[in-house]
Amino acid sequence: MDINLIEAADRRLEGHVRRTPLLSSPFLDEIAGRRVLVKPECLQHTGSFKFRGGWAAITALDPEQRARGVLATSSGNHAQGIAKAAAAHGVRAVIVMPSDAPEIKIANTRALGAEVVLYDRATEDRDLLAADRIEADGLSFIPPFDHPQVIAGQGSVGLEIAAQAQEEGVTEGDVLVCCGGGGLTSGIALALEARAPGLRPRTVEPEGFDDFARSLDEGRICRNPATSGSICDAILTPEPGRLTFPVVSRLAGPGLVVSEDECLRAMALAFARLRIVLEPGGAAALAAALFRPEEIAGEAVIAVATGGNVDPAVFRQALDRHG
Amino acid sequence: MDINLIEAADRRLEGHVRRTPLLSSPFLDEIAGRRVLVKPECLQHTGSFKFRGGWAAITALDPEQRARGVLATSSGNHAQGIAKAAAAHGVRAVIVMPSDAPEIKIANTRALGAEVVLYDRATEDRDLLAADRIEADGLSFIPPFDHPQVIAGQGSVGLEIAAQAQEEGVTEGDVLVCCGGGGLTSGIALALEARAPGLRPRTVEPEGFDDFARSLDEGRICRNPATSGSICDAILTPEPGRLTFPVVSRLAGPGLVVSEDECLRAMALAFARLRIVLEPGGAAALAAALFRPEEIAGEAVIAVATGGNVDPAVFRQALDRHG
Asked: Where is the signal peptide, in residue numbers (chains A, B) (predicted)?
């Protein structure tokens, strides 16, 4: 994994990806006690940064692989990113999703043209199910984070942040990233290392699912005790990836942890101050920027708002509590 | 009023305005039966396009005028645009607002540093109140739409649409604009006339407040029977402006009218499909794009989503009914 792979993915994304702006509000700056710049990947195609990695992975396949199709496992955002990128290239996409994934994510993945295979988290083995389909149909597996091209695609966010931060006069400080398996964080970390070495990536996770924070602290991969049971469904993973952890471990600062309620509060503030829609897992970095000022370095902080695919009932909850 | 004034305003906005992207979703295209491109000015500074006109007007003042300050009348979005532009230039801003304006708009205008003067729509004369303050303090009056520099600033939206539509391969079709007094519509109309003559501006108004639609139909300025009583507060005006109407009349197609419920439905769809927050008046153009397909020409339609300053209770209503 290096910057060349990210730059190559970025060139393949040109003209297809949305280059999201940096948003800000004096009201958020006041809460945080420093400038807050938000990279709204909720405005990306399919509502999350995952479109980038999906596009990068699909476009890296050779013609034979494209003809046979791809399989992905995902609770929803990777699913939609792969589905849209595959459809754009006429590639068959089979997505294995847990049956308790947010309804909107399952419905959207199907509507984008993918074949969705649901499984029960409690009674079925996802990896076995996926392996069977892959073998039977000769599909190429595109995992949600531990894959060089997926990391490279997500890294395009880091290239944009490096350029946009410089335009804003920000050359030092923390870049907060909502973190599941670490695909986005590792891609951003590699991009910043090459293009904006004064910007330091930081993982942000929900309480109880802070595998990266603990792993970074202990210097080895640690697992979460549970893999479901949080409204931050987009960033729940059992443990850091084998490819992503070494990169994040080498380049990132200590991991940050926020509560579910802080994510809901950040959603309500993003609604009122930035007029963007975030899902709980996509609001974790903004929550840390606003509510963990003492754990953050620099006069400005950049928060990646990773996704906005949220069921209306959950969004209403954020407005009810904090609107 | 001509393109030169708009181009000059656009140059003064450079580096200060947010150049908003064009957003889209295959799900919206399906509803509309054609491509739908959305210009999300809810992402603009202060949450609406009004920042553009405010900045253009403030930067057009001479040093003596700036030293004395400005006065604006507004139900909220123009207020915030003026407040922020004035604060950036160290200019005193007095804003006369109705006491029943949305709370968030009053609070934000104050927080942005403006002096807010509230008046009672039923018992007080706004224009008399404003005239007294203007005379007493030597303030420059910046009205919400009928002002050459305000129209020029709003016209920068049209310059961006002309360039972005061409990038998207769209050279013919309708550009739908949520319309109050016609400042934005007339500015966009002049920009499109010069830069993208195949794109035709169209006003969109809420039922019961369709002064532009009726005026365009009759070829003379017609008044609305009421000036309050709609959730589309941002685009309620008594009648088309004296400067704006001749421009819109010369360049725009017939006016479109949507219901309040259609605005709420468009808000819910913008939430789910574009992950942006719209206020009812800011969603009128998208509502027309989605729900009035038979009244629209072209293979693609561009809808300007003019603002996103909405009280949480109203947004919840959109999600409750249509989420």
From this structure: none
